[in-house]
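Researcher: Structure prediction, please.
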Amino acid sequence: MNSDIHAKDAPLRLAIVGCGAISEQAHIPAAARVDEVRLAALVDTDMTHAKVLAAQFNVPTAVSSLQDCWDDIDAVILATPPHVRSKLALQSFSKGLHVLCEKPMANSSAECVEMIASARMAKRTLAVAHTYRFFPNRAYARTLYKSGRLGRMISVHIEQGDPFGWPTRTLYTLRQNMVPGGVLFNEGIHALDLLWWWFGAPESFDYQDDSLGGLESNTHLTLKYKEGGIAHFRLSRTCSLKNKVAMQFEKGFVAFPLYEMAGLTLELNGQSKQLVVHTTPWDYVEIAARQLQDFALAAIQDRPAIVPGEEGAIVIEMIESYYKKAAQRVRPARTPLPGVTW
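Model: Predicted structure follows.
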């Protein structure tokens, strides 16, 4: 294990901890596209599956525990269920490793604070996998907004939803003993990070979901901002929604599909046009590679990652406040219809 990482030490020796769908579909193939890393090990308690993936992707080592390889690596991607990420992150920092943590970075803001403090003490990089920030169309539109050309935000409408179909190996997103929340905590966290990335913290909010004590599957969230702008976010893991972001500004309008990385609709100065700002409409491995490269360069160059741990924690704090308010509601006398929030 390198105690100090410099440019001359690249590529970083990387282990991916957790060999579920996100690792198989994104993190593992992404590592092959990033010159700044060398994928040295896969870690999973299901050794049979880990060995199959290691053979498939030419990874030299598959082990059942992080401690079995941490003397041979410089950095880790934590792609486990979130209830164990904070413990693994603390262990990693104690061994001088850099950490890229899947979202949500932990199950509570208190765990996030502990992870951030540990990273600082170890002088190691802690980054969080909020991939929306690496989509070319989102980055393009945000740069336009931050330049002032669009003016003040008036309204944002986000719809995200499909019947749940993620090929999870653990079903952790549906297990209340493993996560503190449902669709907002797992799927909606990306859109919440997007809103914070663009507009900062709201002044107030209104939150509804369909939970009757279990994990929510449908939510409505309204965020009100200092200058009068309002964001509306409808989220579902049972209903098919538009899967689109639409933003109205004083001087223009921006819209893009959630699952599209190249195209966007732009209205500015009275003119409307369809823009294509990237060559590929959809390549999630490329997005994961962009994210991984940023993480590796942050570690090598000793600079902040695009999504540092401090910003990953902000979204967890926001979600906790929504759930806290929801817990204070008086439950309806009758069970709501499927898909209806209260």
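Model: Residues 1-8 have pLDDT under 50 and may be disordered.
Researcher: Thanks, that helps.
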